[in-house]
Amino acid sequence: MTIKTNFSLLGLNTFGVAEETAFFTSVSSVAEVQQLIKEEVYQSHPSMMLGGGSNVLFTERYEGLVVQNQIRGRELLQEDEEHVWVKVGAGEVWHDFVLYCIEQNWAGVENMSLIPGSVGAAPIQNIGAYGVELKDVFESLEAVEVESGELKTFHHADCEFGYRDSIFKRWAKGKFIIVNVTFKLNKRPNFNTTYGAIQQTLEEQGVRELSLKAIAEAVIHIRQSKLPDPAEIGNGGSFFKNPVISTALFESLQQDYPQMGGYPAGVGKVKIAAGFLIDQAGWKGYREGNIGVHEKQALVLVNFGGNNGKAIYQLAKKIQASVLEKFGVEIEPEVNII
């Protein structure tokens, strides 16, 4: 196993931030993970796993060990008349896995097309888009326990999924390294076109017969029309979570902002769009030197070039304070701040 020192993370994060890590390595198997946690450098320094680098903002040099997960592979475990169970390596690219499912005519992940990142990061964040979340197709995952080196299995209930949340962002954070995820997918699609602009996009594209490919292409079109390509402009996708507020506050805000939409989020709660709040607070299209807020999607903070991680974080805090003052609503980062 090769441990590199003073390693630049420029090519490993979608914000295009050029911070360094004191130590860097990669793993491509369960055995390598189990070997890594015995290494002196791992045991004597803080560490973090890195997938696609799409949900992280580095604001300073990382004085520890960054481990890139490169565990690959897809395995059909079992199937019946209704479902298939497929195990996928944590280092697989999420969107590549979605396209693979569509090719196999396995339904359930098509609405989550083009979400950046890796399969192993998906359950940590409980990723989701257009009315579907990871938890809807999740069966189980395997992870190496850092303390013991043992391979542990986590089933659905064990993960305590919430909105962009799981135990791996709370008490289990840093205690386990996810090595694979098993999904339960449908052989008979149950198309979900009610969320966002999917139905409208399908009509504009002249789609007369729904298919997994048609749904995926509609989602990809919507995302590409609203979100900047990290290869062109540094960004981490949606920077903030959509906040969940009380129904009473939502109804009060709607009196002043009748165009504000909301989705039921439990008894007495409504989920609203953070992008709408940021836009109404005047931040959409804002630019400050080489950082700013994307002109088409206020949820996205962008890096136009240079090592601006700290400045992006400061901008995020200004936006949070502005939204809280104007609406009385707290918005939390979806991106991990390092």
From TrEMBL:
GO CC annotations, alphabetized: cytosol
Cofactor: FAD
Gene3D superfamilies: 3.30.465.10, UDP-N-acetylenolpyruvoylglucosamine reductase, C-terminal domain, Uridine Diphospho-n-acetylenolpyruvylglucosamine Reductase, domain 2
Keyword Cell division: yes
Chaperone in keyword set: no
A GO molecular-function descriptor: FAD binding
Pathway(s) served: Cell wall biogenesis; peptidoglycan biosynthesis
Catalytic activity: UDP-N-acetyl-alpha-D-muramate + NADP(+) = UDP-N-acetyl-3-O-(1-carboxyvinyl)-alpha-D-glucosamine + NADPH + H(+)
Principal localisation: cytoplasm
InterPro entries for the chain: FAD-bd_PCMH, FAD-bd_PCMH-like_sf, FAD-bd_PCMH_sub1, FAD-bd_PCMH_sub2, MurB, MurB_C, MurB_C_sf, Oxid_FAD_bind_N
Record-listed E.C. numbers: 1.3.1.98
Keywords: Cell cycle, Cell division, Cell shape, Cell wall biogenesis/degradation, Cytoplasm, FAD, Flavoprotein, NADP, Oxidoreductase, Peptidoglycan synthesis
Family annotation (PROSITE patterns): FAD_PCMH (PS51387)
Compartment(s): Cytoplasm
Gene Ontology biological-process entries: cell division; cell wall organization; peptidoglycan biosynthetic process; regulation of cell shape
Catalytic residues (positions): R164, S238, E334
Domain FAD-binding PCMH-type: 16-188
Top EC group: oxidoreductase
Family (UniProt): Belongs to the MurB family.
NCBIfam families: murB, PRK00046.1
HAMAP family: MurB
PANTHER family, sorted: UDP-N-ACETYLENOLPYRUVOYLGLUCOSAMINE REDUCTASE
Protein name (record): UDP-N-acetylenolpyruvoylglucosamine reductase
Organism name: Persicobacter diffluens
